[in-house]
Amino acid sequence: MKKLLMILSVLVFFSIGIQAADINHIPAAFKSGKTESLLSFTETELDLSLPTGKFKCKKGEALARLERFLLEKKPNAFDILHHAEKNESGFLVAKLKTEKGDFRVNITYRQKKRKRLYNQLE
Predict the structure, then answer these.
(1) What's the predicted TM-score (pTM) here?
(2) Which long-range contacts (CB under 8 A, 24 or more apart) does 29-36 make?
(3) Coil, strand or helix: which one is 86?
(4) What letter would DSSP give residue 68?
(5) Contact 65, 50 (CB under 8 A)
(6) Domain coordinates of the chain in residue numbers?
(7) pLDDT of the chain along its 122 residues, tens only?
(8) Nearest CA-CA partner of 78 in 23, 120, 5
């Protein structure tokens, strides 16, 4: 029984580590203000919501708008508060701390050919 519990604990630990590793580029992109690392993980079109408005635009335009926002606000921390997946979709909720205030970030994505593709950033 102890061996089974130990094996299950190790499996859960490694599965959580693998899942977290898949989204490590998100905090780095938000903290640095450089969104090019998100480009290959973004759908062709993206719903983007910023304090200046809501936009449905091509990924290049969406990430350029997001980068301008990040450069203006000067981020210093990005803390993931919640991350969940179900079947072939998922989301994460985070807190973006900047020199000009804190912002809640919601990202939804879907799995396509074993790759996560973001389709909404709020």
Answers:
(1) 0.74
(2) 30/70, 30/75, 30/78, 30/94, 30/96, 30/105, 31/75, 31/76, 31/77, 31/78, 32/75, 33/67, 33/70, 33/71, 33/74, 33/75, 34/67, 35/63, 35/64, 35/66, 35/67, 35/70, 36/63
(3) strand
(4) H
(5) yes
(6) 26-121
(7) 433 333 333 333 333 333 433 678 888 888 888 888 888 888 888 888 888 889 898 988 988 888 999 999 999 999 999 988 888 888 889 999 999 999 999 988 887 765 566 666 66
(8) 23
Tokens of 31: 């903290």
| Best CA proximity match to 25, nearest among 87, 96, 78 | 78
What CATH code would you report for 26-121? 3.10.450.50
